[in-house]
Amino acid sequence: MKKHAKVYYSENLVEQVNEFETSFEIKPLERGLGNTLGNALRRTVLSSIPSCAVFGVKIEGIKHEFTVLDDVIEDVVTILNNLKRVRFFYNPSVFSQNSIHVASFLGQKAGQIYARDIESHSGLKIVNPDLYIADVSKVGALKFELFITNGKGFVDFETNKKYVNEVISLLESQIEGSVLAVDSDFSPVLNANYQAVEINSASPIIEEKLNFSIKTDGSIFAKDALSQGAKILIAHLNLLADVENLNKFSADFFGDQEIKEEPIRRFSNSIDALDLSVRSLNALRRAQYYKISDIEKLSQDDFENIKNLGRKSVQEIMEKLQNYKNENKGEN
Hints:
This protein is 30% helix and 23% strand. By secondary structure, it is an alpha+beta fold.
């Protein structure tokens, strides 16, 4: 009987941009399995990873999207398009008791309004706080509420319009106006690609490795997205593995995967947290330095001996490393 080689999985840290955009390597695989696994994983992570998104927006005094707002530069359609792009960190436990949550901006400031000015009533965290919403010339001229739910994939505004009509009596609000449905893009994965490469073409037994790259919107780590995609595939395949007992399997296979509440803390020891220039970051990675703990004991001479690090880059690293230490003195 043919023996199968042990398969290894690793993250390609040299090509890592940050923990939300990176690539992975899986090898050795039997010939043909690279494309089989890669295609299945790619389709799954792009379409089936659960998340949350805005499905409805209420703007004070607005009954339809073609109404004009005084003292606001943008029209209602533009504001709606901006608001539906606000992304929240998804925690399934938050939505287990209540499937609809509210976030709002109640006109407490004038000037340029960003996603960071929006307050979540349920403690949901906004992962793109620098997203521009609108420019307001008068305090109180713009007030709005976002209604958020969980789901998968893409839901168009026509479908959400029906959903709004179904749940309208459940939507608690502090302002007057109509709830306007918007498109909902629940997928936290922005991009996923794969490549199957032969790794021993000189051998009579041809094997492959799978290179899989993935980029998320910041609401989930790339590694977690890949893990969830694999678990979803395994759950479906497990149903087929025991054909004698298909009707005995529980639907729990397809429940939401629990996500850690504080993803940014896992980011804290990565050199990405120093916010270095691309040149400095790449030079450190090529020298096999990936964590702050790896470089904090290096001297200036040690840094200058690292290939492709000039004086300005060394100075930048040392200054930002010192700033990082000062900011995190009390967190040990």
